[in-house]
Design brief:
This protein is of the alpha/beta class. It has helices spanning about 1-35, 40-75, 85-110, 125-160, 160-185, 225-230, 235-245, 260-270, 270-275, 300-305, 330-335, 365-370, 405-415, 430-440, 455-475, 540-550, 565-570, 595-610; strands at about 215-220, 245-250, 280-285, 315, 340, 360, 385-390, 425-430, 480-485, 490-495, 500, 510-515, 550-555, 575-580. An eight-stranded mixed β-sheet has the order 2-12-9-1-8-5-6-7. Helix 2 (about 40-75) crosses helix 3. The longest helix is centred in the first third of the chain and has 37 residues, at about 40-75. The radius of gyration is 28 Å and the shape is globular.
Length: about 600
């Protein structure tokens, strides 16, 4: 019996190791390819990490499953010679359990009400039944995969092909990981962008008196359905008035992307594969240079995070250095237009040192930096990385308040105490965080055991703060200002996630256009869910440049929303284009990577929000 058990467990361990290693090799290649890794050493380092980690995990699962199978057979006292082979019992349970552990969470974890196939349940019981049926179907497919795998392993074991098969498979995987980075380097993915236009060919058309100033307010995760409901309840009077005076519409977003990716597209007008930001952070392995953006739903980032204590991996947050395209505030500043930036999400760190008089810049992460200093900003050597000019905020304390509160109040104070720049940008991470945490109180029927919060709860309270800010902002800015309020995505509830909502499938965000040359009362202006324009997140960048009098790059992914502009503005200022801005000048050269303490704080934010 002991000898039989040891053979069973040995076969189970071999099978699980091979099974997990195959998964790891595939996942490694996906990461090498997605990130355009052009280092052979980095490619092999990624392969080694994935093969070892996934192989070890699968082997542990396989041995545990085989042990449980043997104990069950012994307890049932039904083992007899010839009744079920040791090899079948050793391989199939482990292969089945590994497949379940991998594929059920990959396909169902975070599934939202808007992502279901064939039927769309509206309540928790319907969604629960849907998930049970879907899990049963996936379990059946996993049983089929386990059967195929166990048959393959049985044949390998019977013919003693372990060594030959392992060598052949390893050779093929190694060749693939050698060739892929060489091909990537040959394609020149990392070369400097070509200079396709001379700086003298770019002209700002229209003076400050002829062109309207532009204010862009980015509210992460502002949801059109929530906004529609609260406007109908009379809780958003400033948004309701702005809708009647301008255009309020859903804004199509990017599927299978998160906020870091989408805001980079909003600010640069480029697709993710062009601007280069593919997640919130990179995972740095040995010889992988700046690191690898994780491929979604492969569990790479979860495993790397839990192995960070070994010193093999490190998570590196996105900064401006991750961006391979110019955000619109850098273009405006380069061509002499004053800018006022109060946060531009991850790609606004470190603070740009503006060339144009009358400009100021507060970078992303200023609140974390202030927390490290206990709010005292005087004599802080790293202050220039967050505030430009350094004396902008004076010797006092930074506001110790939630992100949106200090950001909005700081912007209002700057607008009241300084001349309004030609371009103003504000980004606030709320309401995204609030909706992730409190959606069950807003739509209790979507969750088991949830109860509605009085007055709509934290979500309604947060939207009320946005509404009050909108009223104060419109009172503080030049009456000629073209005001653009955008969100990167909406939200959809999920029963099976640490967060109440998810948005990887791309629920639309919100776009509000009011003031300046924007036409009044767009088509279907009375309903948020009836789009006035067919717009996407890519269209914000070219529209902002056009309003400022700058030409639009021909390779931008979006378009100028000409239909939202009044006929007089359209006839006087036709859209101008240039081949592109990249290559005209070099990006800012301030120290780009955060210090270890700040990076830990940023990663803690992501962990609290369930992203890491």
């Amino acid at each position: 019996m002991p000898q039989t058990l040891s053979r069973t467990l040995l076969l189970a361990g071999r099978s699980g190791l091979a099974h997990g290693a195959l998964y790891g090799a595939a996942i490694s290649w996906l990461h090498v390819r997605l990130n355009g890794l052009d280092s052979v050493l980095g490619s092999l380092s990624t392969l080694a990490f994935c093969v070892v980690v996934y192989g070890a995990l699968a082997a542990i699962i396989a041995v545990a499953a085989a042990t449980a199978w043997r104990l069950w057979r012994t307890w049932r006292s039904r083992s007899r010679p010839g009744h079920g082979s040791t090899r079948e019992g050793a391989v199939w349970p482990g292969a089945y359990l590994w497949s379940l552990v991998y594929w059920v969470p990959a396909l169902l974890y975070g599934l939202t009400y808007d992502q279901t196939w064939l039927v769309h349940p509206q309540g928790a019981w319907g969604m629960g039944l849907y998930l049970l049926i879907a899990a049963s179907f996936i379990a059946a497919l996993c049983a089929g995969l386990a059967t195929v795998w166990s048959a393959l392993i049985r044949r390998v074991a019977e013919r003693a092909l372990w060594a030959r098969g392992a060598v052949g498979l390893a050779a093929a995987i190694l060749i693939l990981h050698f060739v892929t980075p060489i091909v990537t380097a040959g394609w020149g993915r990392r070369v400097e962008p070509p200079l396709r236009v001379a700086a003298g060919d770019v002209e700002v058309v229209g003076s400050a008196t002829e062109r309207p100033p532009v204010v862009v307010v980015g509210l992460d995760g502002l949801d059109p359905r929530v906004l529609d409901r609260l406007i109908a309840e009379g809780k958003m009077p400033n948004f309701e008035r702005a809708r009647s005076e301008g255009i309020l519409s859903p804004l199509a977003t990017l599927p299978d992307a998160n906020s870091a990716v989408i805001w980079s597209s909003i600010y640069t007008g480029r697709k993710p594969e062009v601007h280069g930001v593919l997640d919130f952070y990179r995972v740095r392995l040995p010889s992988t240079g700046e690191g690898l953006f994780p491929v979604h739903r492969t569990f790479f980032k979860e495993l790397a995070d839990r192995l960070g204590f070994l010193g093999v991996t490190r998570q590196i947050s996105v900064t401006r250095s991750s961006l391979r395209a110019f955000p619109y505030w850098e273009i405006a500043d380069h061509f002499g237009l004053s800018i006022g930036v109060v946060d531009g999400y991850l790609c606004s760190y470190p603070a740009l040192v503006p060339d144009t008089p009358g400009s100021y810049f507060l970078s992303y992460g200023l609140d974390s930096f202030a927390g490290l200093l206990d709010g005292k900003i005087a004599d802080a050597k790293d202050l220039p990385l967050f505030v430009q000019p350094v004396d902008l905020l004076g010797p006092g304390r930074l506001p110790r308040a939630p992100d949106f509160d200090w950001q909005s109040q700081t912007l209002l104070e700057l607008l009241r105490s300084h001349p309004q720049p030609r371009l103003v940008n504000l980004y606030a991470h709320e309401p995204d965080a609030v909706q992730h945490a409190h959606w069950r109180e807003f739509e209790p029927d979507r969750y088991f055991g949830a109860h509605a919060a009085a007055g709509g709860g934290p979500i309604a309270e947060m939207y009320g703060r946005f509404d009050r800010f909108l009223g104060e902002l419109r009172a503080a800015i030049d009456p000629r200002t073209a005001l653009i309020v955008v969100s990167d995505h909406g939200h959809s509830p999920s029963l099976v996630h640490a967060l109440d909502t998810q948005h990887r499938h791309g629920p639309p965000g919100v776009m509000l256009l009011v003031g300046g040359p924007f036409r009044r009362g767009g088509a279907d202006a009375g309903a948020v869910d009836a789009p006035a324009v067919d717009a996407t997140v890519y269209d914000v960048f070219p529209t902002v440049l056009h309003l400022l009098g700058l030409p639009v790059p021909e390779d931008a992914a979006g378009r100028v929303l000409v239909e939202t502009l009044g006929p007089d503005f359209v006839s006087r200022w036709p859209v101008r284009t240039i081949p592109g801005y990249e290559g005209l000048w070099r990006p800012p050269t301030q120290r780009l990577e955060r210090g270890a303490a700040l990076d830990r704080l940023e990663l803690e934010k992501l962990k609290k929000m369930g992203y890491l």
